[in-house]
Amino acid sequence: MASIGIAGMAALAAATVCLTSGCSTLGYYAQSIGGHLDLLNSAKPVPQWLADEQTPADLKGRLALSQRMREFAVSELKLPDNASYRRYADLKRPAAVWNVVAAPELSLTLTTWCFPVVGCVGYRGYFDRAEADTFADALRAQGLEASVYGVPAYSTLGALPGDFFADPLLSTFIRYPEGELARLVFHELAHQVAYASGDTVFNESFATAVERIGGMRWLNEHADAEARAEYERFDARRRDFRALTQRYRDRLDALYRGPQADAQKRADKVVLMAQMRAEYDTLKATTWGGFSGYDAWFAHANNAALGVLAAYNELVPAFERLYEREGRDFKRFYTEVKRLAALPMDERRAALITSGD
Questions:
Q1: Distance in angstroms (rounded) separating the CA atoms of residues 350 and 354
Q2: What is the separation of C-alpha 43 from the centre of its chain, rounded to a whole number of angstroms?
Q3: What is the rounded CA–CA span in Å between residue 320 and residue 310?
Q4: 124 neighbors 150 (Cβ within 8 angstroms)
Q5: C-beta separation of 121 from 10 below 8 A
Q6: What are phi and psi of 102, to 5 degrees?
């Protein structure tokens, strides 16, 4: 799963408050500030990388491509024209941050943590994998199911002043397939357009809708046949993954909400998880021709891993309908999304779901 979040912004915003007023989890916020600043300090403007003879040719090609996508985001998708994604950092690690998510043994509802500015979110982000694992172990000791996953990018919402603090391109995603690279950049820029404090599902679903719409436009208008074919293979597997996990999320949710005793729920849960893994093994061996990129996810799948998937997709169809209702005009679409983001959560959800009718 390519999980793209705003954990870094949540921690950074909270850190500012805790450093001035005292906070029992000061260590968490301190690592967030240090990790974020280290990331920014390693970034250089893309033109510097392109002019450097030591920069590998393939990286130069990807950086140049990213800047064409960046201009497309402004001119065609009406996304913010600022310093974001105009610098590049080689992190020399596989993820920008590692997110920790947790859920009860018999529920798909994620545990939440609350921070100033961004509100409550269903994850905590760490710049060090060992620290993320330690926190996950502590959650497991409390009887929760926890999952740790790498995040290739995160957004600071464009809220920090100056070019230095703008979100950079990262080595963790720069070599993604062309269509996926475009989608990621568009997704993260969308977080700068509208943000509803404490509503992860709304925020991520909106950004996912923008990335889908914008990604398809990029592929259709600017990518060659090879890039489109590469992306179709990539996205077909992702669609299969989403369909498979959605089926089992629905079955598990119905089980957890059902009238059976907890002991029976636990037994039925074991059966459902085994069925899901068996169905995945068949999919991998047949349709996917042995592709094993999701092996690790299924090996560690639990309520937390299944619960977090909903945040990125649950409201996407509603946002896509709203985009159509607004005449496929991005400015009008964003204006309406920002209006919705300002509403109370229950009112926001109801208005969004009915907005495309």
A1: 6
A2: 21
A3: 16
A4: no
A5: yes
A6: -145, 155
Q: Going by C-beta distance under 8 Å and a sequence separation of 6 or more, which residues neighbour residue 118?
A: 6, 9, 10, 13, 157, 195, 197, 198
Q: How many domains does the chain have?
A: 1
Q: What is the pLDDT of residue 122?
A: 86
Tell me, yes or no, whether 63 lies in a domain. yes
The pair of structure tokens assigned to 184 is: 């990621």
Helix %, strand %, coil % for the chain, to 5? 60, 10, 30
Taking the model in full, what pTM does it have? 0.88
For residue 304, tell me if it sits in a domain: no
**Does residue 170 form part of some domain?**
yes
> What confidence tens digit (pLDDT) does each residue in 302-356 have?
999 999 987 778 899 999 999 999 999 999 999 999 999 999 999 999 999 887 6
Q: SS3 of 117, please?
A: coil
Residue 327, domain member (yes or no): yes
Tell me the per-residue pLDDT of 205-215, one tens digit each, with 9 for 90 and over: 999 999 999 99
Neighbour tally for 193: CB within 10 Å: 22
Continuous segment of H or E residues that includes residue 100: strand 97-103
Question: Which three-class secondary structure state does DSSP give residue 193?
Answer: coil
What H or E segment, with its residue span, contains residue 110? none
- The range of the structural domain enclosing residue 78 comes to 7-227+313-355
Q: Give me the count of residues in the chain.
A: 357
The letter for the amino acid at 1 is: M
